[in-house]
Amino acid sequence: MLCISAETLKSRFLADMDDGTPDEVFADLKPKNLGGWGVAQIAAGTGLAVYAMWVGILQPGFRKVPLRLQVPYIPASKAQVENVMMLLRGRAGGLTDLGSGDGRIVLTAHQRGFTPAVGYELNPWLVRLARYHAWRAGHLGKVSYLREDLWKVNLTECKNVTVFLAPSVLSLLQEKLLAELPDDALVVAGRFPFPDWTPSRTEGQGVDRAWAYSMKELRGCSQKNDE
After folding, report:
1. What's the pTM value of the predicted model, to 2 decimals?
2. Is 3 or 100 the better-scoring residue by pLDDT?
3. Which domain, by its residues, includes 11?
């Protein structure tokens, strides 16, 4: 912390300009040792800032969601987004992103020709953030971000679905997707794969990997297993 006042700085600066020794002024501006109490103040302030971000931005979307279905907001990297787009190459029509976060998947999909591109997100602050990103990119009104529980979304007409969700959620989401999606639908998962499904294709490596699942192939495998 700096312990020199504005008046002292001004008078010293003017005096030193007359003496031709301005270096002495800057010596007073060197940061001093904060000490244990100063460090504690900074730590406390940082903790309060993090808590405020959690209460104001992240927590609202979790209040009515069971613990095992809560998904922390982790923005997708550029590599993850590109790998998802690679798996969707050659496909057309609309795109649905379940748990769309800050909206970057939906926005990129629209820019790649998917129309309509719609994101469903429960957290109201992330919905606002996604709309802000769309506005900055000049696509506000061309993409849709809806505050809605993904479990209540009707997927019967969705052909291209993307998800960046936790494994605990993916294991339950499998049933909904199998029950509602048409045979020609493609589901692309980023960051984590579906635990019980075999992907038709993968793209990328490590944490940037994405997995593509053909509903027709999955249903064919399911029927063979039943026989």
Report:
1. 0.70
2. 100
3. 6-61
